[in-house]
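Morning!

As promised:
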Amino acid sequence: MKSQNRRSFLKTSTAITVAATGLTPSTAHAGPTNILSPDRMGVLVDTTVCIGCRNCEWACKTAHGLETPPLDAYEDRTPLAKMRRPDETALTVVNQYENPKEPDLPITVKVQCMHCDHPACVSACIVGAIAKHANGEVVWDTDKCIGCRYCMVACPFQVPAFEYHKALGPRIMKCDFCSERRADGKLPACVESCPVEALTYGRREDLVRIAKERIKRSPDRYVEHIYGEAEVGGTSWCYLAGTDFDSLQFPKLGLNPAPGVSESIQHGIFAYFVPPVSLYALLGAVMWTSRHRHDEEEEQS
Amino acid sequence: MNDFMRPQPVTKKFLSPGVIVLLLLAANGLAFLAGRFLFGIGAVTNLNNQYPWGIWIGIDVAAGVALAAGGFTTAALGHVMHREQYHAVVRPALLTAMLGYTMVAVGVSIDIGRYYYIWHPLLMWNGSSALFEVGICVMIYMSVLYIEFLPVVTERFIGRVDLPGALARLNAPIDRLLRWLDRMLDKMMFVFIIAGVVLSTLHQSSLGTLMVIAGPKMHPLWQTPISPLLFLLSAVSVGFPMVIFESLLAARSFGLKPEMHILGRMGRMVAPLLGIYLAFKLGDLFIRETFVYLKTVTTVSVMYITELLFGVVIPLRMFLSPAVQKSPALLFTAAALVVGGVALNRIDTFVVAYTPPYALGSYFPSIGEISVTVGFIAILVLLYRAAVLIFPVISLPDRALSPQSKYSVRG
Amino acid sequence: MRTLLLIGLLCSIGGTVRAQARVPARAGTAAMDCRACHTSATPTKNSPALAACPRLKITGYHAVDEAPPTLTLGRDGATYGAVIFAHRAHAHMAETGKGCNGCHHYDQARPIQKCKNCHAVSRQREDLGKPDLKAAMHRQCLDCHREWNPAGSCATCHVKAGSAAAKGAVAPVAGASVAGAPVAGASAAGAPVAAPRKATVVAPQRVVYETGAKEGKTVTFFHADHTGRFALACAACHQNESCRGCHDRKLLSGDRTVLARQTAKGLTDEQAHVRCAACHAKDECSTCHKGMSTKTIGFDHGRRTGFALNRFHAPLTCKQCHTAPGAFGRINASCESCHKGWQAKFAHARTGLTLDEQHKDVECAGCHEDKTFRDRPVCGSCHTDKTWPAQKPGTAAGRPAVKR
């Protein structure tokens, strides 16, 4: 590197530093759609009302074009005996748990994407293929997704599923809150199909109020907890139950948004690109001085 | 230095019994890889909706990135701090890093479901995603590594471009291009060297941020907010041991005399780096009081202790000993322990520590996954061997030439 | 006619609603929505903001047999048809359960409202506080149906589209006949319903109760006699009971002639006897508790009532003192309440003291200041001047042996 003198070194360094700093404002805010509207919609799942008919499973599959047996096949209650999870073939499933109050009437709990208010998947997705919209839904964009499955790693509820057996175009499969149906002014398929309206669809704010009213009016019927009101910073889908949520296999999660720590670290490292640029400048300085010293040594010798 | 050392192509045959074994392993891996592309990831791997990431991410990507840290640490030492005595190991380290990152990129491509969208992160940004940061940094850094390696290519071919037949007319323009490149690179190289160090620092640490978002799914022993720092510190500590490891391995393989004077001195620098890493690791263990998980013998506690004891504590003690710094066998052992320890740490963080809340089973890599990973490592070694036979990478004694710095122009 | 109990009577009986949790939903006392009566969410004493009271429109009560026999609920869907609801049969069953009020909630005294007057037909609606029509109906039925038949399916009530029943064939209701008992609801038999159902209630011949008593531990209740010979309607004894009390799947499969029951723990004596006492108030304990003698019923009279039975009272039967019909209630503890005018013919010598001339004409209460005659008076309680003779008045005769 003899042909290069110190001045050109300095000049180029400065140019690069300025260029990097210039990039800052436009890039620091790059990210997916993540809107937390006060008017976001949600669903209140009252597990004390649910009868485990699994009509929601059928309606969901039908609405999403997934393979399903006819509705009357769902009268068979044997699948409830086994713990199931939403997967690429079923975006929602109903699980059954022992009822300490009424042994003959087991508790049934519908499971699907919770549509978090601060979704870990949205924060995690490498290309911003998952977005939280103003109407509460957390939806996945097939045109962006690269199939890295980081959303599945990030999700605290273990909801997103992946089509592992597709060689081309495998999809991330999860409840999309019936994005298309709702855009057409319809209810989510599961909510529409529920015979006992264990699923109440409405503005999340209203639902939380209704849930509180129900608990207040029937303190014997419910435990005093709305799951999803505060968990991981709140979820658009909330649950009421007559027994401890732990015994219904709801994950015990903190009240902080799931992406919180990760994002603060991330934004700490990249605070307006200051740390990387400073490091660059520092290393440049070190390089320059060490070379300077080296050159002087050479000149002296 | 008694002999003047100069990087030059090693004159050896490519094929050897070991190479044939590696070729077989590589072919086996590629066969399973074909299965992945024909029938999907599920056909070859044990991955499922509970365990979305397996050893392809844990070893191929996470451990791969960590073990390619030799590139940026030696670059920092040799070029940024301008310790010329280490220049002899810069090129092998650079080659390892370049090949390593290439394998990381390929490893990521095969693990993602839609490999043909691998370019998406370049256009679709998500600033809050640690994975995006890792991805973009790895992409840029890989380019930087290729640029850093370019002078080796120009050095090899300037004045020797000799295309056969009809292409012979292109000889002169290509030669001119190479010479121009060489001149340009000479002026600009420092930019890329510093960029390489910065980029490495960024994504080595962000790799540690990756699993932070998994929150309660992670075992507390590895789930720490200082995970990025620990990843960076371990990457810095594993850089020199990795160079020592591969230099000794290459020397053994090619029947060369190991450059113990450089490697021994490098080994001495490893101890304080490992010490800092150990201090932070233990501090984290005691401040978060996660040592309670070590009181019982479980898979996680055994893995953690192994990682810490054999990967950090024992090699730390070894590198402090002058005897180790002089003996190739002991130095190799110590370096291999660090390399293994850091690789184990990455596997622990990405695979062992991950427990989904609704696990219907546990994850163990399938034969397909192991075959592909082993195949990749075999290909990596083969490419390294091919590269040092073609390009002037390894420094060999050469009295005939006058002293030259790395970027000097030949011909 | 006992079976034709007025609705008003029934409606005063609350009930319980069962879903997964037992919830007290006694009509009238249930935590109902304030807005049912108040137009404001925050009524105050001075401005209660009362809605127009529906009770003003009372048109009169009607008998159960005047209830419509069947109703068509819902509409035909793709998989399941509408429900032909055997309304009158359910009304009869309701006599032993929650009454009409169980379904026609908040509506006890006014003309029966249509469900959809309150429950929105569309699920997309303003007021999410109460379930929509479909949910309200399903919940109403399922509250009981799931309780007595958890294995039931949609087809229990709905006709499956394409099935024989859906094509016009109707089967007679089998749900409202109780074997061995005349039930007014049987008149609903023959009403068309969706599908034949076998929810027949089998009444037991006998029920053997295991009671907590020390003696006469078991009480055998001859159920068949009561429903057959005495022609008692179910509702005469069974009221406010859960469906499962009669529709018990386990009963249908097991031995139905003799049921073993334990009397519920924690009941007071009065509560435990309330059903039988209406007719058996005048009977001895041993009528039902075979082999139970009054003395040893395990009832500590002194401790429980404060009136210990002395050697004269102990041999008596309960009924000799507790003469009022019904359960054994508290009676006046003074002697006079039973032993009317006893003082005039009381031979004081029986107490061991013959009264002399001076005392003979003194009022009893003159010496026995407490009216219970429990405490024995001494001279000093009347005579403060210590001028009484060395001898007590009268002669200390030997006490005659008390005849037992």
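Residues 402-411 of chain B have pLDDT under 50 and may be disordered.

Hope this helps with the figure draft.
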